Predict the structure.
Amino acid sequence: MLSTVSIGSEPMAVGYSISSAPFNAIHLAVSGNHWSQHIPTPIFPYFVSQTLNPVFPVADQIAESIEIHEHISSHEAYEKALDMLEMVGIPRERGVEYPHQFSGGMKQRVVIAIALACQPQLLIADEPTTALDVTIQAQVLDLIRNLKDQHGTSVIMITHDLGIVAETCDRVAVMYAGRIIETGTLDDVFNYTLHPYTEGLFNSLPNINDRKAELKPIPGLMPDPTNLPEGCAFEPRCEYACEACKQQLPVSTDFTATHQAACLRYAEPGFHIARGKKHE
Ligand code: SF4
């Protein structure tokens, strides 16, 4: 994907490849108010640790972003900034305070407020609720959902938390060692799980209906991304692996119109993993 990448209002590079971006970002918001096939898409990354300027009050920093992108007066932008602060659970009176007066979680919410203030058309949220307590986490997810429903914002949620996926996503793509190994609707992936790695993720979760059940973690470690196995990258950890899995890289295969997975064993008639229902 090629795009114009900007930090704040300063263009950083044109034709920047997202796939090569240094992704330790917590949030990456695509703002700008209009997509165009002819104009590179403006991308505005917001990093929790780097976005906030320590010498300006937080409301001023949110307002600056709104003023630049929405071309409204400073006063209107400031009022909107205070509204955004309230939306992320921070009292408006605290808008005059500086970043060092906020906890890490509150700073994260301020950055979320900046990212959402201009109602971006696409929001890429990379672990947006990490380090937030469950109450604030629920508020942030509500905020993102409202943005999606009320303003038609598309959201790409990047997370390790399957609960967040279940609450916020319509389509799911599961990645392992840099590749998508299963993709489908939320119902497909959660109820008709196909890939052994996805099964392993679900098996690693506590079962609230059986408090004595032992967790079943996926054995082994992630492979070195610079030295991936020749065949399926999940093979050393997969309980279903066969000889062919060591040699051959599985390709994504359609199981239904909406559900795809990359696993060689499905070439064998009748193969299915233990978890979930089978597609008819
Ligand atoms: S291709 Fe083989 S090793 Fe890879 S997930 Fe499928 S069964 Fe497991």
Residues 99 and 107 are 7 Å apart (CA to CA).
